[in-house]
Amino acid sequence: MSEHDISPVPREARPYQGTPAGIVTRLIANTIDVAVVVAVLGAGYLGWSALLFLIDPRGFSFPELSLLFSLTAATVVAMVYLSGSWWLAARTYGGHVMGLRVHGRRGRRLGPLRSLARAAFCVFFPIGLVWCVVSPARRSVQDVVLWTTVVYDWRPRPDDGDVVGVTPPAEH
Amino acid sequence: MASELARRPRAVPVPRVRPETQLAIDAAVGVAGAAVAATVALGRAGARVVAPVARVLWQPPVLPRGLQPRSVVHAAARAGRAERLLLSRRLAILLDAWTPLVAEALVSRLDLTRLVDDHVDLDALVATVDLDRAVAMVDLDAAVARVDVDAVVRRVALEAIIERIDVDAIVASVDLDAVVDRIDLDDIAGRLDVDAVVARVDIGAVVDRIDLDDIATRLDVDAVVARVDLDAILDRLDLAEIVGEVLDEIDLPAIIRDSTGSMASETVRGVRMTGISADDAISRAVDRALFRRRRHADRGGGAP
Fold first, then answer.
1. A58, A29 in Cβ contact below 8 A?
2. Closest alpha carbon to B241 in A36, A3, A108
């Protein structure tokens, strides 16, 4: 960022832009993402119930879903939501709220496969996030394995496929 | 002076002659004339008769040349001529010596002014003089060169002259327009050392005497601005740099955020900054626990 570039980022946050995000911010973002997934599941459940009501109003009752179905649905929704967000927008809604962005090698946005792999990794091994606490480059296990980085990026609409200034990773 | 020159000379009284006297004089003159005529006629007749004899007697062949009357007379004439010349020179010397004395004695006893006034027609005399030719013959340069101007000026009472000059009348009679028309202002301006003139001007004093408020009220600012080439001025400005400096000063992003609230409200911004601070705090704690040196030194300023 040159000296006179116009930036919507507040001055106090500009020094952090492009640097790896810490555990607290990422946890908040993930919590928001979980809430989004829960909201989607809830909306799906209500929609499904509304459909059943329309089909048989007299015999309507809220459907009872099995745990396996619920977990499967939650997993699918979470993976679709996360992978789609990272692939298409480089950030989930939680990341958008907290000003985070996920990028790959050389600062480029993740491809569909790597987005899907990272989403699966996060869904099935969420504890891997804790590794960013002890990682000098604030990388989670998913980041280390898939060679991604989560950085502060408060810009509302980063250019597609752009390369942002990032701190070089200290570990791989 | 002209009137004096034009004055007519006084009439000189002429003595009157009586008619009898005039008749006697005229008769005497007539007789004398007749006698002279008769004498001349007789002389011419006698000469015609005597001439051959006289020539023989003037140069008698029987006498040697040196004893002939002609030779004797010529010798006497030569001696007489020499004597005449000698006498003439002596007479000239005497005249040179005596004439001034006599003239002085005469002039001192005469009223020359009166004589000239009475007998000389000065107007006629002056009319005969070709003044133009006389002036043309005068070598004024040589005459002026011989004049000691400094001495003349020292003897002039300038103050008295100046007091007698009516400067107002002189100036009023001058046709300044004609004088100005004959002045070559371009030539004068070309010779003028403007820098030297300006260096001698007390700009501060000049400015103090100027009523800037009055000038400003009379100034047609619209007309002045209309004549300004704004495009040329803008071309010379580095607008990008100016805009950048202005944006740095006014924090335009903050204004945009305050006006639109599009990206992050104050609450979201606070949550984000709190998260960043918490991240840094945890990282510092972990670094201390692991005896690790501080990370993210390139973040600039560290955690707020």
1. no
2. A3
What pTM did the predictor assign?
0.46
Q: Interior CA angle at B161 toward B156 and B167, to 5°?
A: 145
Distance CA A77, CA A123 (A): 10
**Contact at CB, B244 and A12, closer than 8 angstroms:** no
How many CA atoms lie within 13 Å of B286's alpha carbon, on the beta-carbon side? Answer: 18
Residue with tokens 């004797």: B72
Asked if residues A28 and B275 have their Cβ atoms less than 8 Å apart, the reply is yes
The domain limits of chain B are 272-304
- Which pLDDT score is estimated for A158? 61
Q: How far apart are the first and last CA of chain A?
A: 27
Residue B5, pLDDT score: 47
Question: Residues of chain A whose C-beta is under 8 A from some C-beta in B?
Answer: 3-4, 6-13, 15-16, 19-25, 28, 97-99, 133-134, 136-138, 152, 154, 156, 167, 170
CA–CA min distance B260, chain A (Å): 11
Complex ipTM? 0.84
In eight-state DSSP terms, residue A81 is H
